[in-house]
Design a protein that fits this description.
Strand content: under 5%
Distance between the termini: 35 Å
Largest sheet: 2 strands, antiparallel
Structural class: mainly alpha
Length: 352
């Protein structure tokens, strides 16, 4: 809430609320840059007997990343060892958080359990990890200028999943997408680093990272419409369904109609707009960090192409990128990762 000129309280939109988090994270990184002159990791302060435990913790995080995110994992191998291990630790924490509400024990998860998970998060940020995986993340946040707020916000997204199964408009859906996926970009940029030659503002780089998370989650939603409907969930803006002449009943019926195709075309168009926004920031990342991000962006965007190829049947067909297309996308992503901020073509907006 903010005070208006008339002295009344105005409600911030979801995008405005999220942008405040972006500004906070960007300010934190700027502070680190000012005090240290760069974003290299802080030197280790290792207690006797803990070095091997930390190494084992990071290795285990790498194994989990390799098992569940093979393409992304391959891209991280080009990063410096410190950044690579830190990204693995963040990935594993995010996966563990997501599995609280989507994993095999999801039916037993309560708001109290999420409160306990958040308390564990606060402890590890204070250097008091609960287990091996927490230890890897605790070490990471001690080395890089990572803010706790995006992590807390992801947990809030899990709370939202427990209490909410409909979204009245895109503003509500945007906030959910930020909580469960946009946060990942804000967590990752301080670790991935920004190219020394980048002239982009810190805020614009973080906005692009946020956009990639939003785009990925919107793509997940469009891919999983049928699967979510079978769980009684509809992650689509209710007001836009009404405007398209559709309702939840149409989704539960699972029939592809002209109205559904038209609705889906607009939803896919929006997701692609977020991917386009995300592209602007990938080039600004440090050279060694670009490949995994480009790979993720290109492969996820192709899921939208597959939904179209399935004639918008996301009720009974699950769109996925075939292995052959993944193999083709990886060298394309690598080639794009070689483009530095100073060598890319400026956009029309930048030229004016």
């Amino acid at each position: 809430m903010v005070a208006s000129n008339a002295g009344e309280m105005a409600v911030l939109s979801s995008e405005e609320m999220v942008y405040n988090v972006v500004l906070r994270q960007a300010a934190l990184v700027k502070k680190e840059l000012k005090s240290r002159g760069d974003l290299d990791v802080k030197p280790d302060v290792v207690l006797p007997g803990t070095l091997n435990l930390l190494s084992e913790a990071y290795d285990r995080c790498g194994e989990v990343c390799a098992e569940y995110a093979k393409t992304f994992y391959l891209g991280t191998l080009l990063m410096t060892p410190e950044r690579r291990r830190a990204i693995w630790a963040i990935y594993v924490w995010c996966r563990r958080t997501d599995e609280l509400v989507d994993g095999p024990n999801a039916s037993h998860i309560t708001p109290t359990a999420l409160d306990r998970w958040e308390a564990r998060l606060e402890d590890l940020f204070q250097g008091r990890p609960f287990d091996m995986m927490d230890a890897a993340l605790a070490d990471t946040v001690g080395k890089f200028p990572v803010d706790i707020q995006p992590f807390k916000d992801m947990i809030e997204g899990m709370r939202m999943d427990l209490r909410k199964s409909r979204y009245q408009n895109f503003d509500e859906l945007y906030l959910y997408c930020y909580y469960v996926a946009g946060t990942v970009g804000l967590m990752s940029v301080p670790v991935m680093g920004i190219a020394p030659e980048s002239q982009a503002s810190m805020e614009s780089v973080y906005n692009a990272a946020l956009a990639l998370g939003i785009a990925n989650q919107l793509t997940n939603i469009l891919r999983d419409v049928g699967e979510d409907a079978r769980r009684g969930r509809v992650y689509l803006p209710q007001d836009e369904l009404v405007l398209a002449g559709l309702s939840d009943d149409d989704i539960f019926a699972g029939k592809v109609t002209d109205k559904w195709r038209s609705f889906m075309k607009n939803q896919i168009k929006r997701a692609r707009m977020f991917f386009d926004e995300a592209e602007k920031g990938v080039t600004e990342l440090s050279a060694a960090s670009r490949w995994p991000v480009w790979a993720s962006l290109l492969l996820y965007r192709q899921i939208l192409d597959e939904i179209e190829a399935n004639d918008y049947n996301n009720f009974t067909k699950r769109a996925y990128v075939r292995k052959t297309k993944k193999i083709v996308a990886l060298p394309v992503a690598y080639a794009k990762s070689l483009i530095s901020p100073t060598s890319r073509e400026p956009s029309l907006l930048e030229k004016t």
